[in-house]
Design goal:
Order of helices and strands: EHEEEEEHH
Radius of gyration: 25 Å
Distance between the termini: 86 Å
Largest sheet: 4 strands, mixed
Bound molecules: zinc ion
Helix content: 25-40%
Structural class: alpha+beta
Shape: elongated
Strand content: 25-35%
Number of strands: 6
Number of domains: 2
């Protein structure tokens, strides 16, 4: 018996605003509705949100969300998988690179200062 129905939109802007291409055959992916009944006492319940505004539902809940499917090769991707493939999270390594350059400059300056101090002592 179903106790509730939960729609969750994983990043609706990402899903609907951009046309996503299949990494295998470059066809435009279509969005498909995926649903799953999850029991709040089952081990997989930790991956799902059983809070409906201010109440928590116990028992079987039907979760409905969107995923991508290729009409050509039938490949299937979750939103997170496709984001990874498309490199949507590329911003963070860029920041790390910048930080590395800053660290390099700071260490260089410290090195030069130490050399200067040594030469002054001599
Ligand atoms: Zn494909």
């Amino acid at each position: 018996m179903l106790h509730g129905r939960q729609y969750f939109n994983n990043d609706i802007k990402y899903v609907s605003m951009t046309r996503h291409k299949c990494p295998h055959c470059a066809n435009i992916l279509k969005t498909v509705k995926v649903s799953k009944v999850v029991n709040s006492n089952s081990p997989e319940a930790k991956d799902f949100d059983f809070d409906f505004s201010d109440i928590t539902i116990k028992g079987d809940v039907k979760f409905i969300w969107k995923e991508f499917e290729c009409p050509e090769c039938r490949a299937h991707f979750t939103v997170d998988e496709l984001k990874k493939i498309e490199g949507v999270y590329i911003e963070s390594p860029k920041v790390d690179k910048k930080q590395n350059i800053i660290n390099y400059i700071i260490f260089s300056i410290i090195g030069i200062l130490i050399l200067l101090i040594i030469s002054f002592i001599k």
